[in-house]
Amino acid sequence: MSAEFDIAETLDVKGASCPMPVVKTKSAVDGLDAGEVLEVLATDPGSMSDLDGWADGTEGVELLDQTEGDDVYKHYVRKTE
Amino acid sequence: MSTDTPDASADDAPTDDAPTDDAPSRAELAARVDELEEALAEATADDGGKKMSIIATKGTLDMAYPPLILASTAAAFGYEVTVFHTFWGLDILHEERSKNLQLSSVGNPNMPVPNAVAALPGMDRVTTKMMERRISDNDTATIEELLETSLDMGVEFQACQMTIDLMDYDEDNFYDGVTTGVGAATALQDMAEADIQLLV
């Protein structure tokens, strides 16, 4: 799954709950260069909807994929600009 | 007779264009349009970013969370966020008091004990401890963490000057980065400019 993108950085927010997965993703994306992909590992089931909504409502980011397995939710966010 | 009418309208036409005293010329109108478009561009550039304004009035442990969660999340969305703290909402900004916010056992029908028991001395401490344990067990961010994170993300926290004086708080006891010396007019201005306004 993750092989589809070159991952520039991985953010581990396992254990953290709302609003931290979104807040920390935003901070991590700020540190990327345009075009780079951030992998986010979360255990908060709400992160599926929240990161989707965040990416949708935020300029300069694109949610490439979200996967679920082994109680870990993985999100792939590309910084577009 | 039939020629009179076209003549009259031909006379009228130039008269419509000619008087510059009461009707603006095409050039003047074009200049005015340019001016307005410029003003509009300026206005939209100023308001380009999305803004959120929250008024935080409560200082119980449960009521301290919503403004901070929404503020930090909105900042993650790129909103320019202002949170105006007044009355017991000031305790959220008070470095010492924010770590010791209490939960009220009375008046909340969702509490597992009847009000008559909840009103007993020490019960607020018991329910607060229960909630703090849950917060810790669930890895829910603490008020302090949320506040520090929000400050890092550029959220502006304002402490209402009137209630600082009323509660006799020392401005030095607020977290670094908290704005003091502001009042209702500042909050109102923020609300007027904001896309989202909330009173908590």
Automatic annotation (TrEMBL), chain A:
CDD domains, A to Z: SirA_YedF_YeeD (cd00291)
InterPro entries per the UniProt record, alphabetical: TusA-like (IPR001455), TusA-like_sf (IPR036868)
Domain of life according to the entry: Archaea
UniProt-recorded name of the protein: UPF0033 domain-containing protein
Protein family (similarity comment): Belongs to the sulfur carrier protein TusA family.
Organism: Halorubrum ezzemoulense DSM 17463
Domain UPF0033: 11-35
Transmembrane feature ranges: none
SUPFAM superfamilies: SirA-like
UniProtKB/TrEMBL annotation, chain B:
Region (Disordered): 1-26
Signal peptide: none
Biased composition (Acidic residues): 9-20
Pfam families to which the protein is assigned, alphabetical: DrsE_2
Domain of life: Archaea
PANTHER family: CONSERVED WITHIN P. AEROPHILUM, PEROXIREDOXIN FAMILY PROTEIN
Protein name: Peroxiredoxin family protein
Natural source organism: Halorubrum ezzemoulense DSM 17463
